[in-house]
Design brief:
Blueprint lengths: L4 E2 L6 H6 L17 H6 E5 L5 E2 L2 E6 L8 H10 L1 H8 L9 E5 L7 E6 L8 H21 L4 E4 L11 H17 L8 E6 L2 H14 L10 H15 L19 E5 L5 E5 L12
Parallel strand pairs: 1-3, 2-8, 4-6, 4-7, 7-8
Antiparallel strand pairs: 5-6, 9-10
Helix pairs in contact: 5-6, 6-7
Length: 281
């Protein structure tokens, strides 16, 4: 397992804007009102999700909930055999839904197992509805269980072939709507945790459409001190992982649809580097 990352080591969207880590392009005009409280809740990181010491991580699970490849297999391996034993009692899960278990040997307290849609098996509207439901059910379970922090992987963008750019925008849309409905007031942090650089780049490009930056205010001594402290936290962030153990039953090569631009699909080889994981389910 990678070195444990504490919640206070994960920068918020507000800090990422302040440090100019996220570009604001002229073509990214937002229909949403800027909200500093939301930006203080949202984080985007490139990290191994099994390393996060938070209240809950979301597993990109399959319908059996008994483990698989990619992030699913990584979470089960890191949590230990007790996780699959509890999952056996849950009688599976339908696509678009989620179920919660303990985290066992993981640094996170809970695991929320969300079953994403298979893009190639559904119509686009049905797949979108089920993916959005995964994010909503994850947030609902966090709130119902009085959890304060939750991290999502890029659900369905691996072997389930959901287009990466669309998956990002659908996830951000659903989280924004959940917060606008006032249902996430008790949540302190919602983290989009990407393993692949391409997903991190996509989130950085599109997040400002859904969570636009708040206009700068005149700095006081206290604001300056807070800014300095946050910058120091960001500077201490560890490097993201570059490898992850593969599931033993996982094929050696997969093809996946992804998006090089807004609307165009290209086919890329998922094993573009030795030891690189298959991505999210």
């Amino acid at each position: 397992m990678a070195d444990v990352i504490e919640l206070n080591e994960i920068p918020t969207l507000s800090l990422l804007y302040k440090l100019n880590r996220i570009p604001i392009a002229s073509d990214q005009a937002s229909s949403y009102e800027p909200n500093v409280a939301y930006n203080d809740k949202i984080s985007i990181i490139k990290q191994d999700i099994t390393s996060l010491a938070i209240d809950a991580i979301v597993n990109a699970a399959n319908e059996s909930l008994l483990g698989g490849g990619g992030v699913d297999g990584a979470i089960h391996r890191a949590a230990g055999p007790d996780l699959v034993e509890e999952c056996r009692t849950l009688d599976g899960c339908e696509a678009g839904d989620a179920k919660i278990t303990d985290g066992y040997e993981l640094p996170s307290k809970k695991v929320i197992h969300a079953v994403g849609p298979r893009w190639y098996a559904l119509s686009a509207p049905d797949a979108e509805a089920k993916l959005k439901s995964c994010y909503r059910r994850g947030l609902e379970l966090a709130v119902e269980n009085d959890l304060k922090s939750i991290a999502f992987p890029a659900i369905s963008t691996g072997v389930f072939s959901y287009p990466n750019v669309k998956a990002c925008n659908d996830a951000l849309t659903e989280v924004r709507e959940f917060l606008d409905e006032g249902k996430g007031d008790g949540l302190q942090r919602i983290i989009f945790c990407n393993f692949l650089q391409k997903d991190q780049d996509i989130y950085y490009k599109h997040v400002s459409k859904h969570f636009p930056p708040v206009a700068e205010v005149e700095e006081t001594d206290e604001v300056t001190k807070t800014s300095t402290d946050e910058t120091e936290i960001a500077a201490k962030l560890p490097d993201p992982p570059t490898t992850e153990p593969k599931h033993p039953d996982e094929p050696s090569s997969k093809k996946q649809k992804t998006e090089a631009a807004e609307d165009d699909f290209v086919v890329v080889d998922k094993d573009d580097a030795k030891g690189t994981p298959k991505g999210e389910l």
